[in-house]
Queue: 2 jobs
Job 1
Amino acid sequence: MTFLSTQLFTPLFLAVALAAPGFAAQAQSFCASDGQPRPVQLMERFINADCDTCWTDPATPVPASNAVALDWVLPSRQGDDAPLSAVATRDALVRLETLGQGAPAKSQTLVHAVKGIKGAALRVAHGLPVSGYLGASIELKPLSPAARQPLIAWLALVETLPAGLEGSPVERNLVRNVLSRNWDGRKQLSKDEQKSLFESRSMNIAPAANPDRLRVIGWVEDEKGRVLLAAQSRCIAP
């Protein structure tokens, strides 16, 4: 079985997937977390690229309605011969290392409660794909007293895949690219910088990713790795 490397990325299969409810291309130029409920839980599902059955496992954990899930596929020792190699990313290994976890032989799910930062909110946004890149941003605003501490900001470019695609029992937010930055709210900042902590980048789009299904999910952690705030963009049809 060649998983996610042939059928999922053929033009005909993409056209069928895009025709499904909720996955039509959106005629707009900007998507953000504005007006979206704040996630109170962040779920991270890690799958080893060797384990094709992990993608179709009916026991795959499902996030609560007020939670957001990320799907990371880890490179394996088989390299390109692994069933899920087409969607594996080394960013997944970096994320596990940050969490103090080793790579699972099959799959592993980690769940983080979003603890909040009093007086502050997190915003993420992105524009339209241009020449294989997507401009995206993450912002913590305002810099309340509780936010004046060392922080790590994460911004994941994900491809949202509907339940049923390649037999997946759940909707998946497949991580395609990641930005991680250290923020230090304790520093003496300029008058403008005191209003928020902000990061924007052009993020490379994986060649096989469908641009019409891309969005961003961001979160902020403290020095102990606790998730303090999370946000996800949504494209609302005009």
Note: Residues 11-19 form the longest helix (9 residues).
Job 2
Amino acid sequence: MDPTTAELLARIPRLAGLDPGERAALLRQARGLRCPAGATLSLPGQLCEALAIVVGGTVRVYQVAESGREITLYRIEAGESCVLTASCILGRRPFPVAAVAEAPLSALLIPAPLLREWIARSAFWREYVFDLLATRLADVIAMLEEVAFRRMDARIAEFLLTRAGDDVALPITHQHIALELGTAREVVSRILRDLEREGVIARGRGTISVLRRDTLAALARRG
């Protein structure tokens, strides 16, 4: 038994429902993955050779346009898996987007042939994948509605409210906000400049401070 795999498995609550036989098979045939923040995990066109169940860290899944602009589709947190990876494994198709580790990552990898086999004969794994599909589909639809129907100033206002918390200064760049929201850096800079002129935020070198949360909240609601 690989102690690394056993350690990772013990830290995934969603796998507590495995019966003894399935647990033994997972310990025997899965493997652990550890990689640093910033590591590229997958690129468009690559084959999906395994399904990763994240134990620690965060994975950002994003789409890159021909112009080079990016938009974040969703993030994978501890206990979660990538719905696009699961879909590509089942459909035997290449990965359509990109994925990168945002923080030091630890994960449990289930090889693609084993996942297909287990889904075919195990109610537990079928339920796991179908639940993953339902959850992530709702996330992606919500993201598409944001992009298609909400004004960018409202999206930026909500982004700042969510990320800033109680911090005095949020360490973030205009480019990072643009990548998160799928727009151009120039658009973000223009909106932030207007918000600063109105006294809603203050910009520093690589930081943004929220001065009037109530005004940002009102802007987010109007959008």
Note: Residues 3-148 form a domain with the Jelly Rolls fold (CATH 2.60.120.10).
